[in-house]
């Protein structure tokens, strides 16, 4: 079994952890939420890089064999620096699923809902430049959505109203596909469906990220014990009890099958 670190600015990376527990429940996990500093998307690139590196270095010191940077903003701003500093550890990032969206959009019009920092990052725009010019991308910053999700209000009227405002330019452009370009945003699926029904295809990359995690573990020849459920340690820089409560509310995985700890991190 491996010890896997999963880091996010807050609870968004729980969407990645949830998928990991479905595919790879036998491993041990440390989930680190830097909720006192969420959201990252409104901070400077220098701050994001320094803080992301600091937290990944902490996970490395806990003997994590693999670290998942389960934050689109941190991946966009800091993944190269993290990999350079932690060369002996497999580092897996996340990025908006604009490539599969472009391939599957019938009309070639794709909305991208992400943080301002992700949409402005060199990494995101370099990826955008590799895609077919026939596909039109409608970029929309989801300002204000992350704090609502962090507060446990993903299904609230406030989230619904703000989401409708952010989705309006995407819908007006005729998009048939929507990329959830922040790991927090899969927790808005119910609200999106309430607003749009099934008329738009939603793309998030949780499954693809965990497939990459699985490949890394296979390269390390980690033993697979399908009947075993590993330990999960939840760390929060703000409130570990609130993090655990939100994990139980937002995740589909049966956390009762795992040994759970929740601790403060500073």
Automatic annotation (TrEMBL):
Which Gene Ontology molecular function entries are recorded, alphabetically? glutamate racemase activity
Q: Which Gene3D superfamilies match?
A: 3.40.50.1860
Q: Binding residues for substrate, per the UniProt record?
A: 8-9, 40-41, 72-73, 183-184
| Catalytic residues of the enzyme | 71, 182
User: Which residue ranges traverse the bilayer?
Assistant: none
Q: Name one GO biological process term.
A: peptidoglycan biosynthetic process
Q: EC number(s)?
A: 5.1.1.3
| Family matches, as PANTHER family | GLUTAMATE RACEMASE
Which protein family is it in?
Answer: Belongs to the aspartate/glutamate racemases family.
Name of the protein described by the UniProt record: Glutamate racemase
What species was this sequence derived from? Polynucleobacter meluiroseus
């Amino acid at each position: 079994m491996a010890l896997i670190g999963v880091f996010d600015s807050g609870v968004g990376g729980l969407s990645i952890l949830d998928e990991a527990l479905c595919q790879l429940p036998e491993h041990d996990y440390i989930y680190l939420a830097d909720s006192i500093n969420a959201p990252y998307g409104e901070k400077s690139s220098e701050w994001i890089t320094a803080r992301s590196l600091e937290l990944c270095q902490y996970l490395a010191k806990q003997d994590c064999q693999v670290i998942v940077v389960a934050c689109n903003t941190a991946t966009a701003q800091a993944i190269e620096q993290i990999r350079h500093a932690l060369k002996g550890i497999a580092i897996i990032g996340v990025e908006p699923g604009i490539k599969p969206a472009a391939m599957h959009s019938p009309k070639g019009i794709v909305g991208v809902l992400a943080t301002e920092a992700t949409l402005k990052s060199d990494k995101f725009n370099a990826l955008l430049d590799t895609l077919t010019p026939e596909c039109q991308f409608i970029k929309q910053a989801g300002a204000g959505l992350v704090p609502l999700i962090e507060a446990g209000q993903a299904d609230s009227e406030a989230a619904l109203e703000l989401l409708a405002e952010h989705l309006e330019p995407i819908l007006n452009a005729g998009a048939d596909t929507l990329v959830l370009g922040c790991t927090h945003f899969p927790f808005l699926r119910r609200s999106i469906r309430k607003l749009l029904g099934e008329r738009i295809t939603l793309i998030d990359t949780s499954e693809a990220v965990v497939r990459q995690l699985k490949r890394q573990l296979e390269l390390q020849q980690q033993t697979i014990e399908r009947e075993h459920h590993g330990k999960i340690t939840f760390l929060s820089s703000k409130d570990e009890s609130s993090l655990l409560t939100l994990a139980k509310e937002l995740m589909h995985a049966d956390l009762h099958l795992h040994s759970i700890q929740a601790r403060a991190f500073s």
